[in-house]
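Render this sequence as a predicted structure.
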Amino acid sequence: MEGINDMFIQALDSAEFINAAIDFVSGAEKSIFISTFKAEISSKVKGEKLMQFFQILAAKKAEGVDVRMLFDTPESGKHIPPSNAKALKFLQKNNIKCKSLRNGRLCHAKMLIVDNTNSIVGSHNLSVMACRYNFELSVSIPDNKYCQNLTDIFERVWERGLYTTYKSK
């Protein structure tokens, strides 16, 4: 692959993932695209880094950054994490566009693409367990060509997705 020797691919374990994700989104100027299976908003100490991540997303949206999140909502089926409803409520309150897949398909891909220049792809959900306790592994790839490829995939899936709306119970 052309240019692969010029870029620094970094493996991120559970402790490093959320810090790298926070750094990436903090520097966003144009776009933040996220795909995940689980999203968790927590006001507890163990979830403070995740809360910081989501607060930065909200602040970036308020600055005019195109922030989009692709994930499933509990209405998609009983196998969907209940925490996604609370995350959806927070995201929609902050005018962040959210979509889910059609026809009962699960959104299992975990990726973060920032400004089409930095990306993280791997096994990390946006959850306390993934960021603190599980053995997870993701890679950080700062490469425009790779990010363009990821963005193309994200956009293709996004176009076919369904806008989601928080529904209180």
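Summary. The chain has one domain: 9-114+140-163. The helical segments are 14-26, 48-62, 83-93, 128-133, 144-160.
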